[in-house]
Amino acid sequence: MLHYDAILFDVDGTLIDSAPGILNTLEEVFSSMGVDVARSDLGRYIGPPLRKSFGEHFSDPAKIEEATKRYRVSYAARGCHEGDVYPGVVEMLGRLKAAGLTLCTATCKPTDVVRPILEEQGLAPYFSFVGGASMDESRDNKTDVICHVLAQPVMQGKRVLMVGDRRDDMQGAVNCGLDAAAVLYGYGGREEVAPFAPVFMAADCKELTDWALRPVDEPSHS
Question: Residue 162: in which H helix or E strand, if any?
């Protein structure tokens, strides 16, 4: 018997190194809207909801929506193709699924945006449910996305682990009463996630997989 029956995965910085496409698109949008922002400052926006990120630069809700719309149009055309699956992800998902775990995503990318990316990268078949944000503000943060996934029939009665790389992933898990494991190869790093006391911090996919598949009578070491 394993410790968990299901695992929710963040996507950006956890399954896919999507930084090139996200940074290129953010830079394009900010430039088109007259915001001079150094590229080195944009990394903090990988992961959190778009509206939250644009809200740091625009106080007018209409401008935030305009920036979000411009981002999504550009990202759909180019940015979504500028990413690569992290080393070991395919093997990790294969081992976890073969062991009988239910796998889902929980990402702040809208579902309609993330599903084609997972298909293009060959990851879609591993997931029983693709959980993402809505295109509007009705489901626009990690806590809401996780709650949405947990409400699905496939998740009922399961012991669930959240896996991600940023504070939003860890906070969302806390808010929803889930254990969270952090991957340290993504965009957040140990200093960002440690305050949320994740049950495990993994240096790579193999380490995470080995830990997740340990028997219940084997102690956990982070």
Answer: strand 160-164
